[in-house]
Structures are given as C-alpha cells and as structure tokens.
Write a structure and sequence with these properties.
By secondary structure, this protein is of the alpha+beta class. The chain contains one helix and eleven strands. The chain folds into two domains: about 35 residues; about 120 residues, Cupredoxins -  blue copper proteins (Immunoglobulin-like, Sandwich), CATH 2.60.40.420. The longest helix has 27 residues. It binds copper (II) ion (CU).
Length: about 160
Amino acid sequence: MHIDQTEKKWIWISVLMTFVMMGVLTLYAVGSNIHPPSGFEPIDSTRLHLSEEFSEDNLGLKKNDDGTLTLTMVAARYGFYPSKVEVPVNTPVKIRIASADVLHGVHVPYTNFATMVVPGYISEVNTTFMKTGDFTLLCNEYCGLGHDHMWSRLKVVPKSSS
Ligand SMILES: [Cu+2]
C-alpha cells in the first residue's frame, strides 16, 4: 500500500499531537490534584426511611461527638427534606444527602455547594457557608414534572444563635 509522504507526515503529527495533549492533561491533573471521586457509599434508595441515618427523625443538622456538624438530607420528588435547615456561618459542615427515588441535583446559588444526588449512593460534600442570609436549595437535574418546584430553604445564621 502506498502512502504519500505528506500524508505520512501528517499521520505522525496527529499521533504526536495526541500524545502531547494526553501529557498536558496528565500533568495538569496531577499538578492540580484532580482525580475522580473516590470512597463512594452505596445505599438502598427504596429503603432510606428504614435506614438509621436517613430515617425521618434523624434528618437535619447534628453536632457530632467531635464538635463537627453534619447535615443529613433526603432528596425526593419534589423537595429536599427537611424543607428548612439552619446552619451556622463560617463553620465547616459535612452535608450528606441521598435520593429516595430518581436522579436529583442540589445547588445553592451564591455558595460553592452543588452536587448530584444519584439514587443508590450517598452524596457527601464538605463546605463552609461564608455569608449569613436566606438561601434556596434548588434541584438542578430534571427529575420529573414537578422539578421546577423542587426547592427548600437554607438559612445561614450567625454562629452564636445556632
Ligand atoms: Cu429536579
């Protein structure tokens, strides 16, 4: 089979470009410590209400024995439960959220809190809310006809009142 010299040259250039791009991506990922999520926790979404952590009585903000805060929530068509939560400002909070039905997303505008809530897994986010005020938790993954109305309240309060 005859391959023209110019064509051969461009085949090698395209192969070289592929390796250069892969190298740049690898260096950037390693240098910036970017990696796929790890340590996922599976959970049976159909039995959330029977699990200890995600039963109705255990939802909301809790202070752990070591003084840290954990906010446990359930996302279900069409709301986040509990529907009103209060967290202290400038305090690290671990947010653990699970879906009771389909894929949801949770996003709080003007903060860095956003995650997908995939049925069958617990989503965990560690964040600190830097400003006091009333915020809205929004679902940002289309989850059904009521998706537009899927939201709840997040109130970030001064440290002393929590
Ligand atoms: Cu939704």
